[in-house]
Amino acid sequence: MSFYEHIDMLAEGGMLRRLGPVFARFITALAPQGSAAAGTPLALACLLLSELEGRGHSCLQLGALAGDPSSMLGWSDDDWPGLCAEAGELPQGAAGWQAYLQECPQVLAWPGGTDSGQPLVLAGGRLYLRRYWSDENTVADAVRARTCESEKQGRNTFSEHGEENVLRPRFAASQVRHWLDQLFTHATREGGADWQKIACAIATRGGLAVITGGPGTGKTYTVARLLALLFAVEGEHAGQLRVALAAPTGKAAARLKQAIDDALEKLEESLHGALPLRALAERMGGARTLHSLLGARPDTRAFRHNAGNPLDVDVLIVDEASMVHLEMMASLLDALPPTARLILLGDKDQLASVEAGSVLGDLCHDAQVGGYNAATAAFVQAASGQELPPEYLGNAGALAQQTVMLRQSRRFGGPIGQLALAVNQGDAETARAVLRADSGGQLHWNEAAQQEDMLRLAAEGYRPFLELVRQGRGAASHDEWAASVLQAFEGFRLLCAVREGEWGVSGLNDSIAQRLEAQGLLKRRGEWYVGRPVMVTRNDYATGVYNGDIGLVLPDPERPASLRVYFSDAGQVRSVLATRLRNVETAFAMTVHKSQGSEFSHTVLVLPREASSVLARELVYTGITRARQHFTLLTPNPGVLPDAIRRRTERTSGLRSLLA
Question: What is the pTM of this model?
Answer without folding.
Answer: 0.85
